[in-house]
Sequence to fold (382 residues):
Amino acid sequence: MGKIRVMSVFGTRPEAIKMAPLVKELRSREEIESICCVTAQHREMLDSVMEVFELTADRDLDIMSPRQTLSAITTKCINGMDDVIEDIKPDLILVHGDTTTTFAGALSAFYHKVRVGHVEAGLRTYDKYSPYPEEMNRKLVTAIADLYFCPTVNNRRNLEAEGIRDNIFITGNTVIDAIHTTVKADYQFTTPILNELDYENRKIVLVTCHRRENYGEPMREIFTALRTLAEKHEDVELVYPVHLSPVVQEAAQTYLGGMERIHLIEPLSANEMHNLMARCYMVMTDSGGLQEEAPSLGKPVLVLRKETERPEAVEAGTVKLCGVKYDDVLRMAEELVTDRAAYDAMAHAVNPYGDGHACKRIADAILWFYGKGDRPADYLAR
Ligand code: UD1
Ligand code: UDP
Fold:
């Protein structure tokens, strides 16, 4: 056998941030030919990540359209992938996480009888509609995949409980590999407002909110609570880089627009975002990735959701679920901005999600699978 032809497929911002260090690791291995195919389910937000990590795609399906539906994303990805797979003839396709690109990428691979490696495998809430459609995407990809790269022991247990026995590797999360390259003590922001904020004397709360299951009433309640928080506490300042989804943009402007201490800004590049996270007071988010990054930077996280597939940092005490109701969001946020002991109890760095070497383990596992090296030791968080 010549080089192992490994094609990484991704399309959204979080997949790109978490796959970028892996694509680079694969490129550094002489036994592997690494190909990068983007669906561009996200356009601007994907391109920003590609620029930060200095990656160029070998193939670009360019599928994004405004207010795209799940069916449109799925069908465009599958149709586009047909030609790419026929042309490239990969030995292995890597997909990441739980987006519609992830599911469609895995399904396309299956249609062409190409093996699938699932990066960030084994996360579960066991609620079909929350997060929606991500929980179902993960389960469907589990059924298709041949290799499973789990961030944590807990993720492996979830797969074992579903009868998966072979080719499960515990690697840590590649997002920690990414954050090791972006966060720097002397980082200078290029976004003017981020250089103007008073990180010493103000409580800078970093906010993100974009999930489909939070559209409508949950977003109204969350945003109204955030507004009250800023109105009541003069030492609090909110920074919210608003996702480009028009649904989210409209809701954010409606409920949070025009307030002096609430900064609604454009999405940040990954290096701006990670360094803002390193300097802020705390994080309020419904994002998956932020729940993994902020604990490693010692920042308390309030999760604007009813559940989480990432219980490890909750168990470690740095992340709390606060739901999507006005009273709960406001009460839990106020506790952290007024009660120093409560804040200190949450503000310590924990690393249940990785040690920065996940990509190396994944590349080693691929080589082992193809008979070209030893099986890597599992990552066991301390
Ligand atoms: C998607 C993923 C979600 C992930 C999120 C990360 C699905 C179904 N959802 O949700 O799991 O948490 O990405 O951010 O896979 N848009 C732009 N430019 C961009 C990106 C988005 O204009 O660069 C707008 C478009 O109008 C697009 C809309 O946002 O139609 C929604 O994008 P979409 O990928 O469908 O959903 P997300 O909410 O981003
Ligand atoms: N992120 C970013 N700029 C932003 C908001 C988020 O670079 O303005 C990063 C964030 O640090 C994390 C990833 O994007 O690495 C998370 O993406 P998102 O919240 O969109 O998706 P999720 O993780 O919920 O799927």
Summary: The pocket of uridine-diphosphate-N-acetylglucosamine (ligand 1) is lined by residues 12-14, 41-45, 64, 66-68, 70, 73, 98-100, 133-134, 210, 212, 243-246 (CB under 6 Å). The chain has a mean pLDDT of 97. Residues 70-88 form the longest helix (19 residues). Residues 4-173+354-369 form a domain with the Rossmann fold fold (CATH 3.40.50.2000).
